[in-house]
Amino acid sequence: MNNLTENELSTLIIGAAIKVHNSLGPGLFEKAYQECLCYELRKLGLKVDKEKSMPLVYEDVKLESGYRMDILVNDKVVVEIKSIEQLQKVHLAQTLTYLRLGKFKLGLIINFNVALLKNGVKRVINGKLDW
Fold first, then answer.
1. E-strand spans in the chain?
2. Would you kindly state where each structural domain of the chain is located, as residue ranges?
3. Which phi and psi angles does 29 have, rounded to 5°?
4. Cα torsion 86, 92, 98, 99: sign
5. Three-class SS of residue 37?
């Protein structure tokens, strides 16, 4: 499963997120959704890094700046988990930062605090939001 494209991975990730959302519903803490989504993605045979640290490189010095991605799938797709009333521009900025620092092409912002999960999924592609 390591040779999947970002789009193929995003389809699997969104499908797993829908499964988690259908089971748990909205209203839980982000951590609960994160744990369940990681479990589902691993069941699919995907490589899942949870709370992956993102160092900041400044003048050839690697600084541990406290940036942590919620989930990185197959070293390709950044997944940010939210459980909030409404996504804000700061969530986009956060995901764009991870994409830029890690040189990743695709990020997903998944807000589980919605009635229908497809309304809570936002794709960030090459620095642009498919909002």
1. 48-58, 61-73, 77-82, 106-111, 121-125, 128-130
2. 6-130
3. -70, 155
4. positive
5. helix
Which helix H or strand E contains 39, and what residues bound it? Answer: helix 30-43
Residue 41 has phi, psi (to 5 degrees) of: -65, -40
For residue 130, name the pLDDT band (cuts at 50, 70, 90).
low
HSE, side-chain direction, 13 A CA sphere, residue 15? 9
User: Do 19 and 43 meet the contact criterion of CB atoms below 8 Å apart?
Assistant: no
Around Cβ 10, how many Cβ atoms within 10 Å? 21
Q: Would you give the DSSP letter of residue 117?
A: G
In sequence order, what are the residues at sequence separation of 6 or more whose Cβ sits closer than 8 angstroms to the Cβ of residue 35?
A: none
**Amino acid sitting at position 21:** H
Q: Residue 19 above 60 pLDDT?
A: yes
pTM (two decimals):
0.90
Cα distances (angstroms) measured from residue 56 to each of 20, 42, 96, 103: 32, 28, 14, 12
Residue 51 near residue 69 (C-beta atoms within 8 A): yes
The CATH fold assigned to 6-130 is Trna Endonuclease; Chain: A, domain 1 (3.40.1350)
> How many residues are present in the chain?
131
